[in-house]
Amino acid sequence: MRLTKSILAGLVLATSAVLTSCLGDLESPALPPTAYVSIYQGSPDAPALDIFANANKVNREPMQFSQVLAYNAFYPGNRDFRFSPYNSATSLLEKGFKLSADSVYSLFVINESANLDAILVKDIWKEPTSTKAQLRLVHLSPDTESVQLKINDNTAPLISNTAYKGISEFLEITPGKSTLTIGLAGTGQTLLTSGSLELKGNRVYTLVLRGLKSQTTGDKKLDIQLITNYISY
C-alpha cells in the first residue's frame, strides 16, 4: 500500500538526513519490519481510556469518546491490546490481534462500556489523485439500524447498506463542496445531514457514524465525524 511506503520513505529520509549531517559517510540502519495502526475511541459511555499493546502504553493522554490516535508504528505479530480506565490497573477489555509487517490498520473501540469490544480492519485504498478523493463509512452506533450514505443530491446512495460494526470499502468520490446524508437502509429515511464540507482531492477519508440514536442531546447523541486517513503530497 502506498501509505506504508510513504511512511517508511519519510522515516528513511529523516533518519538519513540526521545520519548524513552527523556521521558523514556511515550508512543509515535498515528499518525493522513495522505495522501501522490508528485507534478510534467509539464507545459512547466508556470512561477515558488507557490503551496498551502488550505491556506498552499506546496513548499519552486519556482517550475520550470520538478521539483518534493517528497511525503509529507497531511491532508485527500477535499483539495483546488492553483497554483500561485512565490511571487504573483494571481492564475493561483485553483482545488479541495479529499485525502483519508493512500493513496499515484501523482499530475501533466499540459498543457501550458494559459490552466493550474492539474491531481491527486492514486499511486498503488506491492512491488518491487531485481529481479524486476516497471515502468509506464506519457504523459504530450500537442502537442504530443499517444505514446508507448519500452525497449531495444524488438519488443513488454511494453506500447502500452498512450494519452496526460494518466498515465499507474506500470508494472514489469527486472532490468539492459536499453534503453527506445518513439515512436508514431501504427506506432512505434521513437520520443525519452534514453541513457543507470541503472534500479535497489527494485525500482518503473515513466517515464515522457514532453515538446513540436513543440520545437526542449531549455528546452521546447520534452524529457523524469525518476523519482524514491519508494525504498524498
Gyration radius over CA: 19 Å
Q: Roughly what is the average pLDDT, rounded to an integer?
A: 90
Strand arrangement in the largest pleated sheet: 4-1-7-8
How many distinct beta strands?
18
Helical proportion, percent range: under 10%
Domains, number: 2
- CATH level 4 superfamily of the largest domain: Carboxypeptidase-like, regulatory domain
CATH C-level class of the largest domain is Mainly Beta
Main sheet overview: 4 strands, mixed
> H/E series, N to C?
HEEEEEEEEEEEEEEEEEE
Q: Could you please describe the fold and organization of this structure?
A:
There is one protein chain. The chain is mainly beta. The chain folds into two domains: 32-122, Immunoglobulin-like, CATH 2.60.40; 124-233, Carboxypeptidase-like, regulatory domain (Immunoglobulin-like, Sandwich), CATH 2.60.40.1120. 9% of the residues lie in helices and 43% in strands. The chain has one helix spanning 2-23, and strands spanning 35-41, 49-53, 56-57, 68-74, 77-85, 93-99, 104-110, 117-122, 133-139, 147-151, 159-162, 171-173, 176-178, 180-184, 190-193, 197-199, 203-210, 223-231. The two termini are 15 Å apart.
